[in-house]
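Write out this protein's structure.
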Amino acid sequence: MLPLRTQGNWSTIALVYLIGLMSMALVGILSPLALRITEAMDAPAAAIGLTIALFSLPATIVATVGGGIVDRLGPRLVLLLTSPVFVLADVILWFAQDIWLFNLGVLMAGVGYLGILNGGAAMLMGSLEGGTRTRALTLWSTYAPTGFSLGLLMAAPFTTSDSWRLAIAFHGAIMLGCAALAFILPHVAAIRKEGQSGREKLAALFAGLRRPPILKLGFAMAMPAMISYGTSLAAPTYLAKVHGVSLAASASIVAIAKIAAVLLGGTITGALLSRDFPMRRLLGIVVVIGIVAQIALFLPSSPMIIAIAGLMAWLFTYGAATGICMATMPALATGTVGGGTVAGSVNQFVSLASFLTPTVYFALTHWSGYVGVAIVGLLVCFIALPRVPTAPKAAASAA
């Protein structure tokens, strides 16, 4: 028998990132196909709102528990199971003729996403070291918005076609490929203790919530995620209204800008942090850029070119800020608190913030409200970011 591979490499990073991208791409596919889906299901147009919300429901409720389960099972096993769950969900979506069955498929995909959400970060933390791990985690921080935008582009050819289910079939085929490739992922040791009582095992699932630095990181990471989600909801309609462009053109601008700028922000952040650039100083610079970007984007007197530049700068800010937060995680994964527990606890805050974001942003009626929320959120992110005892690179070297 060949020895088990425990060390990750570039193929680990690429595969984990692809799995993350495709998990979020499903939401991006469903969003522009909303009218086609409700017509095919003979359901009211408003029903798609609940359908899409069901995708994030499992993570909103049990992200913390999901992270603890990842540590107990090991991230490799979790990632081996999640891609087939998505494939099964896509099969249900392909055959569904009623909205309740379609909703069941989306909810099943949400369960798979819960495993990827925590298992991906845990795999990168457990199988990589030093600067490679830092760059991988900052890249991982960009998978959600990039995957959503990729899904928008995947669905674009089918928005006016009766063959809209082909977009779902294409998604399912890619996830099937991910399921087959997941066997090459390295083995990361699970965290188990023998002789634990049921109460001790249950308490271990919530261990991250008893660590103040992990709670602070949860607040820090939730803020840019909330602002990014809210900006994505508000910007297309706002740009179309203020600058007189079509909603379709505005939505395309947001999707393409998101892929380019978020990836750029995460990549540059990873390169700087891997070279020991001071983390809090970098976040301070990013916060200033983000505030200026939000003003440029939403100020009504900004020309269209300045508004687009503001959008790009904001998305760069999001990629950089979440990358900094993600790079902090390995220093907090110590002792019995593994990478899955840290990721699950932090993602619980992100999921709750994302759940509340539409209510907050749709209640705002003036551009200053968007900017005000962004300023407060970015300042909270800067203040809440925990001070880790050593830089991620040093911590990895000592491990």
